[in-house]
Amino acid sequence: MNEKELIKRLVVCLIIILACYFAFAYIGTRNVHDNGNGTDTIRNELRSIEKAQREETRVIDETEKAISRSQKGIDESTRTNKEITSIERKDTEIIDECQQILKRVRERNTSKD
Predict the structure, then answer these.
(1) Residue by residue, what is the 3-state secondary structure of 40-89?
(2) Is pLDDT of 108 > 80?
(3) Which parts of the chain are beta strand (E)?
(4) How far apart, in whole angstroms, are the C-alpha atoms of residue 48 and residue 42?
(5) DSSP state of 13
(6) Given this model, what pLDDT does residue 9 score?
(7) Where is this region: Disordered (predicted)?
(8) Per-residue model confidence (pLDDT) at position 12
């Protein structure tokens, strides 16, 4: 074999090797899917979920504050109710006392006649 034939064979072998390499690379990546769009979709969904969770947290915080204000209002109403009940008792006692005085006065007037 002369040198030219050897070079030709080497070039042909190199071309065959390169062709096989590219063929295997093409066949090997043909079933690999592009996950770029899927990744973007998931990223957007996660951001949306995060935003929704922040909104829910804000609503929960506002609800807690409203409950606290309501509890203060209930406590104030209870205190006021107790005061009113106490005043009513005092009024009832005063009315009873006045009725007793009137009864005694009437009894005196009837006994004088």
Answers:
(1) HHHHHHHHHHHHHHHHHHHHHHHHHHHHHHHHHHHHHHHHHHHHHHHHHH
(2) yes
(3) none
(4) 10
(5) H
(6) 86
(7) 63-85
(8) 92
